[in-house]
Amino acid sequence: MGMELYLDLLSQPCRAVYIFAKKNNIPFEFKHVELFKGQHCREEFGKINILKKVPALKDGVFTLAESTAILLYLSRKYNTPDHWYPSDTQKRARVDEYLSWHHTNIRGNAGKTLWIKVLIPLFTGQTLPPEKLQEVMDELAISLKQFEEKFLQDKPFIVGSEISLADLMAIVELMQPIGVGCDIFEDRPKLSEWRNQVEEAVGKELFQEAHELILNIKELSNIQIDPQLKEHLAPVLRKMMK
């Protein structure tokens, strides 16, 4: 039995796993888990990942959750080019450093734009005031400044002259605001140039393929949301709307 990847490309970490596997010609079966239909909450998927989150990997009887763990597993099992997760101790430490910082900074802020502009109105029928979005954009601006000054500096990529898993995890997250009309690359030439280099390194066709759903997110305005999913997310949404 071949390897299976359980993904929904609306999810940033799923896009990172998808791009990495495709770019490195890793054979896998794409298992689409539609988040809006609540498929990740179903008992069947719970057998793959008890956490009921995507991405998830199944390789024979072995299952694995969490995007970073999946990316590292794939890089080791398929011996992908060294630049993705360098064997050089200090370069690898730079990838680890970024991935450690990523979750509470870039990921912690960029994804909120999608919730505020699309998902909360879609789930609740209510629109949040512009001040709420501005608050998130201000927080994201701080993270982007740190990203440029601490991690990019004057280099083409985070680790140096070649793309790594750090760049991949960063770019998929930063495309989330783009999908909802918040152009965070405008007036940030260093960040914009980095984005272009990442797209070139990945391959523009693959990059666009992976981001097609998020770049057309507003077309989902008429989608039917799973009632149980609405109920499950209600406490989270109420907290975000305060």
Model description:
The protein is of the alpha+beta class. It has 2 domains: 4-82, Glutaredoxin; 83-241, Glutathione S-transferase Yfyf (Class Pi), Chain A, domain 2, CATH 1.20.1050. Helices cover 57% and strands 7% of the residues. The chain has 11 helices and 4 strands; from the N terminus they run βαβαββααααααααα. The chain has helices at residues 12-23, 43-46, 67-77, 89-102, 106-110, 112-124, 130-152, 165-179, 189-202, 204-215, 227-241, and strands at 4-7, 29-32, 56-59, 62-65. A 4-stranded mixed beta sheet has the order 2-1-3-4, with helices on one face. Strand 3 and strand 4 form a beta hairpin. Helix 4 runs parallel beside helix 8 (165-179). The N and C termini lie far apart (48 Å). The model has no long low-confidence stretch (mean pLDDT 92).
Question: Which helices and strands, and how do they pair?
Answer:
Elements lengths: L3 E4 L4 H12 L5 E4 L10 H4 L9 E4 L2 E4 L1 H11 L11 H14 L3 H5 L1 H13 L5 H23 L12 H15 L9 H14 L1 H12 L11 H15 L1
Helix pairs in contact: 1-3, 1-8, 1-10, 4-8, 6-7, 6-11
GO biological process, one term: glutathione metabolic process
Keywords: Cytoplasm, Transferase
Family: Belongs to the GST superfamily. Theta family.
